[in-house]
Amino acid sequence: MAAALSLLSLSAVAAPDAVYHEFEGATLTQGRVIWLQNCETCHGYGIAGAPVPMQPSEWRTRLAKTRSTLYEHAIDGFYGPDDAIMPPRGGNETLTDEQVRAAVDYMAALALSYIQAMEKHR
Hints:
Helix content: 55-70%
Number of domains: 1
Order of helices and strands: HHHHHEEH
Structural class: mainly alpha
Shape: globular
CATH class: Mainly Alpha
CATH superfamily: Cytochrome c-like domain
Strand order of the largest sheet: 1-2
Low-confidence stretches: 1-14
Mean pLDDT: 87
Radius of gyration: 15 Å
Strand content: under 5%
Largest sheet: 2 strands, antiparallel
């Protein structure tokens, strides 16, 4: 039983690396850390209508928007037409604009990587 629990805990720790890709560059590296600490809770599971980056259908229209629009929604908060709720700064008022933008950049890169992988396998 203890061995099974150990394996379970190891797989839970390893999951973010497998699902939440690491990208090169300081901004995306910082963005991944911020995203895992602040955004993954909702965006990893679709809570409150949060678009999940591993679901390309939820990101195509969002990635067609300007990056400044995505930043604005993440910094100021946003109520989507599909009743999605994005609280300002993901609910963490201590995040700076730069940190929020880094998290948005990471999430957009992650979503784009899943879109490209899906298109590659068509």
